[in-house]
Amino acid sequence: MGDFGLEFEYGLRDLLRPLERSFELAELGGGGPVERFAARESAIFGQFEPAFGVIPGAGAMQHLARLMGRSRALEVMLSAQDYDADLAERYGWINRALPADQFGEFVKLLAHRVANFPAAGHIAVKDRVNAIGLAPAEEFRRDFELFAEGVRNPEFQSRIQAAMQRGFQTRDWEMDLAPRLDVSCPAVCHRHGQRRGALP
Fold it and tell me: What domains are there in the chain, each with its CATH number?
């Protein structure tokens, strides 16, 4: 992996204009420092990596701990649970959870409004907010090293292989991921069809 992933994450955080992401379906895994301004109420969020024995990659450790606070970040990352957009908004994961009929218009109007203001202001604001709110490069680097070590672990290899054989990374799995994650002990996994955002 080298430093490519770290350089990519810092490329995202150091873009001169805000990098807006809006979510209509799901964001599962990863979780780096981009602006999550809005999501449809039906969107799903989660950090599945700990279910395979590794820490979340792409800067999620640093970013989510700062967004949510320690306790909520631990819950999200240790549980590998699916979270609906309403709960993600309450946890600070996203700014707004919107009904489907309001989502597109909100994203369009916000993007146009931001784009109409002077770029110099965007640059100065984002630079200072990043300096205050984001982790230094060495913390991201340490997390990338831990992630790379984790994916070489035999337990990770075994679990990811079993998950792939059962449909991991298909749309059906992504839209109902948490109940399917425990590939070795189904008796203690989250029950299929359980309400998202709630633990058993």
Answer: 4-188 (3.90.226.10)
